[in-house]
Amino acid sequence: MTEQTVRIGGHRLRLSNLDKVLYPETGTTKGEVIDYYSRIAPRLLPHVSGRPVTRKRWPDGVGTEADPAEPFFAKALEPGAPAWVRRFPIDHSSGAKDYPLVDDLPTLVYLAQVASLELHVPQWRFSPEGERRNPDRLVLDLDPGPGVGLAECAEVARWARAILNDMGLDPLPVTSGSKGIHLYAHLDGRPTSEAASAIAKELARAIEADHPDLVVSQMSKAARPGKVFIDWSQNNGSKTTIAPYSLRGRAQPTVAAPRTWEELDDPGLRHLLFTEVLERAGDPLAAVERDAGPLRSYISKRTAARTPEPVPEAPHAEHAAKGLPRFVIQEHHASRLHWDLRLEHDGVLVSWAVPKGVPATTAKNSLAVMTEDHPMQYLDFAGEIPRGEYGAGIMTVWETGTYELEKWRDDEVIATLQGRDDGPLGRVRLALIRTEGHGEKSQWLLHRMKTDAAGRPQSDGEPVVPLDHGDGGADRSEPSLPAAADLRPMLAVSATPGIARAAAERWDRAWVEMKWDGIRGIGLWDGHRLRLRSRNGNDLTATYPDLTAVDLGLGPDPAVIDGEIVALDAQGRPSFPLLQKRMNLAQPREIEREARRTPVQLYLFDVLAADGRDVSALPLAERRGILEALTRDARPPIVVPPVFDDVDAAVATSGRFGLEGVVVKDPRSTYRRGERSEQWLKVKHTRTQEVVIGGVRPGKGNRRGTIGSLLVGVPSADGLRYAGRVGSGFTEQTLGRLSELLGPLGSDTDPFVGVPAADARDAIWVRPQLVAEVEFAQFTPDGILRQARWRGLRPDKSPDEVVREG
To answer: What DSSP element (H or E) covers 787?
Structure first.
């Protein structure tokens, strides 16, 4: 068995059984299937984007010609699918079912990982709000009956083309990879699915009337031998057709391959294997999606009523403006701080996300990731994109101006940008060079050229630094944070006291901190006020005004600090259940009231940046000195707890005072953003486990009418593995809050792998989107939590971050 965890488009995905053979006759493995879908994505995605996708899955392979395997047909998104997979519900007689939308490479790779070899889509798309639109294409399925083949289908296709051309439609062919040929023609979105079906039906009858010896339009299979059946019913809004570029679950790994009309004239016309499709250039079917427009992806990710961003009604580009093309660089405080570089080209703003901004010198390049094209109105956009919306966070204009273009190819762009007279950029010649992928999510290098366009040496620029955006406006002010500061915290690995003690001996010195029972808080200090982010990037600034609306006395210089937000009980001990009262509030009045009842403190243990410089590469012992200097005049609620030098004594002390445990660190460790490192080891007294809630069992007795217990799971390679029930530790307030949160997530699909029939008997399933933390005694051999007790929700974590502890 081969297995690896990869990061694709910002998402972690575990790939397993890569050497498993899915096509026995050719020896094609799952790894090769994933590779095909990864490489064909730029051509496939435009044809499925925004459409609900049904799948045929062959987890154990397709079998052989003599002994084919039966597939699993999947409509609703399968249990255990990552939370980041976009989905929209479609009503069925048994209730609404969530269908996946394959709009990006991570989702496509996920479906390949679960052996969804065939992808089927309707001829209509969802609107950004999830409403069903009219079809944007018409399809004819030319299906050969016994005794005829592709040559006869090609002949019928040419007859259909002549009629469609007379109707103002320009059809394009796809060899289906199974038996016949599909013809696609673009529609302008005005006909309904019923009208499109009627058009296709009449066309099929007309061809049948002219060529009764070869064509049949009736559904009866008895009428098909020796003829080509024109299946017009694929235009029904409830029907789906194999997606262009999808693999087929046949004995050979063939593909639904777009073809040219010239190819259909070839007497040797045959279906293509996936290896042959990869060798072909371009997309012969691209014109069918032409009215999707370059802004289709942008519009699909945004709802005008929910975001201040410009959202055009139609996905078309604007006419080019006179004069030099324009550019904008926006500073974007989203889940991760980055800069968005946008260049006017062909009536849109072609865009890249640049985590570290424009390189200040020719000696160092910046990574740039291509994003969706943006409308021209984005040139001067600044504001706060609300939480929960795509790209949530504060955006301001860092620089804007015009540029002189030297080269624009699909893998290289060279231009000289001229910023504002008083702007930070000045005049700079830049090159963007594609290094991996195509289209959205492709990776590029942003390079500062050594010479200007005339060949003269180009001077270095100023480092790109974030600005103070505390008011969410677009005004520029003094730099507040160094460019290298991002907000991904370093994480610890679980260990026993013995393992931690042995590690400290290897390091020649123990560095032990108490483990505080709260939530991680990364603080961005601008010299006056603190902004707070959770470990998964959510903005916590408004949630904890007792930390962010006061002067904490951290000095006039910007800094990035790392610590734990805690609430203390009556004995002065951090209490995670007490902190729960603060974690899920959203209304300012509720937050203000609870802040008075349950104040919080920020226990600091590290610093990532100070005095305008990145210090994360320094050893922990040196960073501690910087932290102590930074907090010398700090005011409550800032606390810098002491460090211990004896593992056993620290463990004993934390147990005696009822604390959660300790964290043992290598004093030489650098700060490794976003990584879980064995240079930091956490030792807990009470075993805790993050879990994903996937079901509810109704309460009985004094809990009648509310939640009796929660059914929870832990993600695994084969899905959301059932981990048991949690039925104790709840307050009435907690049960009420959980009912509010879980009610809208109701589902008719069991999300778990391995749930026993007894536990599932009266369960109410919910979509697995909420993460919680429980205490427990131990795991049973089959992965069930023993004596699990509720600790609280973890809104700072997403389901794909949950891992089994120990």
So the answer is: none
Nearest residue to 470 via CA among 515, 544, 513, 531? 531
Residue 595 sits at the vertex; the CA angle it makes with 591 and 598, to the nearest 5 degrees, is 125
Q: Residue 641: which residues within 8 A CB-CB, separation 6 or more?
A: 513, 514, 516, 603, 605
Query: What pTM value is reported for the model?
Result: 0.45
Give the C-alpha distances (Å, rounded to integers) separating 443 from 334, 412, 549: 19, 12, 39
Contact 466, 476 (CB under 8 A): no
| Residue 205 to residue 217: CA distance in whole angstroms | 6
Query: Do 694 and 81 contact (CB within 8 A), yes or no?
Result: no
Number of domains within the chain:
5
Q: pLDDT at position 483, please?
A: 34
Q: Could you tell me the residue range of the domain that residue 39 belongs to?
A: 3-121
Q: Are residues 650 and 705 located together in one domain of the fold? A: no
Q: How far apart are CA 336 and CA 330, in angstroms?
A: 14
Q: Is residue 444 within 8 Å of residue 432, measured between CB atoms? A: yes
Cα-based torsion angle of the residue sequence 14, 19, 20, 24 in order, rounded to the nearest 10 degrees: 150
Residue 290 has a pLDDT of 62
Same domain for 537 and 558, yes or no, is: yes
Alpha-carbon distances of 259 from 145, 171, 248, 270, 638, rounded to whole Å: 22, 11, 16, 11, 66
User: Beta strands 530-533 and 54-57: pairing type?
Assistant: unpaired
3-state secondary structure 157-221: HHHHHHHHHHCCCCCEEEECCCCCEEEEEECCCCCCHHHHHHHHHHHHHHHHHHCCCCEECCCCH
Buried-exposed string 595-605: b where 16+ CB fall within 10 A, e elsewhere: beebebbbbbb
Sign of CA dihedral 795, 798, 801, 806: positive
8 A C-beta contact, residue 370 and residue 445 = no
Tokens of 27: 């020896």
Give the type of residue at 347: G
Task: Indicate left, alpha or beta for 624 from its phi (over 0: left) and psi (-120 to 50: alpha).
Answer: alpha
State both tokens at 558: 């910007």
- 445 neighbors 367 (Cβ within 8 angstroms): yes
CA distance 168 to 190: 14
Angle between helices 150-166 and 193-210 (to 10 degrees): 120
| Residues 47 and 285: beta-carbon distance below 8 Å | yes
Closest CA to 610 of 671, 665, 653: 671
Mean pLDDT along residues 208-215: 93
Residue that is written with structure tokens 């997530």 in the block: 745
Helix (H) or strand (E) holding 317, with range, is none
Least confident of 34-48, 119-133, 301-315, 752-766: 301-315
Q: Are 507 and 666 in contact (CB under 8 A)?
A: yes
In a domain, 474, yes or no: no
Q: Which whole-number Å values give the CA distances from 671 to 489, 623, 729, in the listed order?
A: 8, 9, 36
User: Which residues have CB under 8 Å from 732's CB, separation 6+?
Assistant: none
* Distance from C-alpha of 492 to C-alpha of 161, rounded to nearest angstrom: 63
Confidence of residue 119 (pLDDT cuts 50, 70, 90): very high
Paired tokens of 132 = 């069903």
Q: Is 775 a domain residue?
A: yes
The set of catalytic residues is 515
Q: What angle do CA 717, 721, 723 make, to 5 degrees?
A: 145
Place of tokens 């007279």: 421
Which one, of 746, 754, 756, lies nearest residue 693 by Cα?
746
Alpha-carbon gap, residue 491 to 530, rounded angstroms? 22
Domain check: are 524 and 665 in the same one? yes
Residues 94 and 174 in one domain: no
Residues 104 and 193 in one domain: no
Contact between residue 122 and residue 237 where contact means Cβ atoms under 8 Å apart: yes
Q: Of 71, 92, 121, which residue is a domain's last?
A: 121
pLDDT, position 203: 93
